Amino acid sequence: MTIYFEKTYQRSFGTFPLKGQELHAAVQVAAEVGYRSFDTAQMYENEADTGAAIKATGLPRDELCITTKVDIANFSEERFVPSVEESLRKLQIDQADVLLLHWPTPGGDIELSLNLLQKALDQGLTKNIGVSNYTAQMMRDAKTMVDAPIVTNQVEFHPLLNQDVLLAAATETGISLASYCSVARGEVFKHAIFGEIGVGYGKSAAQVVLRWILQKGVSINTMSTNPANIKANFEVMDFTLSSIDMDRIEEMTATGYRIVGKDLVPYAPDFD
């Protein structure tokens, strides 16, 4: 459907909050186990380290999907395109594969930032454009504001949070969802059900969670510095959860555990 739903790119390696040698080592392991999609952002302050680490893998550029995100501080005519050009220099690439707006414009007026995103695309600075942390209504509005397809909305997505409203908007608009906080920063491991389900498949609790996300039609971003976990997070394409187990996990979304909200990010929108 989009680059996010080609099999290779359904699983992306996230780089937040890694920097320096820790980031370099993690990216090398990720590349060795098969990751070809890597996610960073201006806000992470690690684009240069990410670019160097990806370069060191020796992987051909045409095998890679590199995503970065524009910080809201750069949502102006004067700063947007120069900031993207700086991101590309740091990443040591001529063009991003996917360029996202990291957050909706505070106050909710998203049209200017979307027009600037379209401008970056028109200038050849990225192959694809997308958004992050958009509400369902923002997804619908965004679709009418730019000419190019919006390939993804990267949002908090895990089985402890009901995101049915966003999933419905994804179907309506054709804007696919991508997950961050895919294992709820470890909160899922406090719930025995995921490990119990995993026993039947010979998989870990984390692998069950990631597989559930994929079967919901959402691509996954995961980050780890542990080589065994990096490998395990990638190895989620060789089993399928039954409809019964999918439903059992679905019940856990009633937990309502949200990590990223206004208490953490004051300019976050009123999420669905």
Provide a concise account of the structure shown.
With 272 residues, this protein is α/β, with parallel strands linked by helices. Helices cover 38% and strands 15% of the residues. Strand 5 (126-132), helix 5 and strand 6 (150-156) form a beta-alpha-beta unit.
Strand fraction equals: 15-25%
Contiguous low-pLDDT stretches (5 residues minimum) are none
Q: Looking at CATH, which topology would you report?
A: TIM Barrel
Class from helix and strand fractions: alpha/beta
Envelope shape: globular
What does this structure look like?
The chain is of the alpha/beta class and 272 residues long. It has a single domain, classed as NADP-dependent oxidoreductase domain (TIM Barrel). The protein is built from 10 helices and 8 strands. The protein has helices spanning 20-33, 47-57, 80-91, 111-122, 136-145, 164-173, 192-199, 205-215, 227-234, 243-250; strands spanning 11-14, 37-39, 65-70, 96-101, 126-132, 150-156, 176-180, 219-222. The chain has an 8-stranded parallel β-barrel with strand order 1-2-3-4-5-6-7-8, surrounded by 6 helices. Strand 3 (65-70), helix 3 (80-91) and strand 4 (96-101) form a beta-alpha-beta unit. It is globular. The protein starts with 10 loop residues before the first strand and ends in a 22-residue tail after the last helix. The model has no long low-confidence stretch (mean pLDDT 96).
